[in-house]
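Late entry, written up from scratch paper. The run itself happened at the end of the previous shift, but nothing got recorded in the book at the time, so transcribing now.
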Amino acid sequence: MSDRTLLTLVRHGETAANLTGVWHGSTDTPLTERGRRQAERVAEHLAGRHAGEVRALYA
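Output as recorded:
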């Protein structure tokens, strides 16, 4: 086991609020279709690269 920790930071996918320039803080706005595709690509990347290694995931 490695004594190193890998921290991966990922920004949320695109939302309708992003497109209009609204700062929404803790408001839960839905992802756009593009945002859903972005999230799917990130999930595929993390699953392929870090399979079995993820100890925590925060959103």
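The helical segments are 16-20, 33-49.
(Scratch paper discarded after transcription.)
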